[in-house]
């Protein structure tokens, strides 16, 4: 019986996702992979993404030295950075970038409880759709469930972090120097909102990295449950 069920999976791995979804819908609880195992496997994959990747972002230089998520200046301030470097103030420009990334590192510490709650709420239907979805389907699910709550958590932390690390003074110095240059227009962006959104992008980017690894590299499936569940989408 088990061999027959395995044969069905092998055949249906070659057909469209909609048909494969139909197969999973009809699986009995005592089959090769139960509904509970599918949901648990997706929860485990997301937990690993949070543990392995998001935690790294909370460390010093977690953003600043990670080219995938490093926060650069908003477009309207990139001319400030270039102008300062052109007149020999590269060190000052680097400090301006660093404080933006430090604020994001502080904020991400608030993310884990929100993610944990979202992961706990995954239903079998959610898990099934995620499993049969794109390489970042789980990340997209988390984004839809957590983005608003994370923004509300991140924003005041980033605002406080700017004050704590002296970002206000650094940016006032940067912008004032820039605004004294000839042929320039004054700039005054809302850096708190900008860094909040960039921090969110960074968090979801790193979760997507871990999800893609688990989906596409069998060696990244470090538990029996992950191997069992993600074999369905291979």
Determine the structural class based on helices, strands and strand pairing: mainly alpha
Largest sheet: none
Strand content: under 5%
Termini Cα gap: 22 Å
The SSE order reads HHHHHHHHHHH
- Tally of helical segments: 11
Q: Report the mean per-residue pLDDT as an integer.
A: 79
Organism: Hyunsoonleella flava
Protein name: DUF4197 domain-containing protein
Structure notes:
There is one protein chain. The chain is mainly alpha-helical and 234 residues long. It has one domain (1-231). Helices cover 71% and strands 0% of the residues. The protein is elongated and about 70 Å long. The protein starts with a helix and ends with a helix.
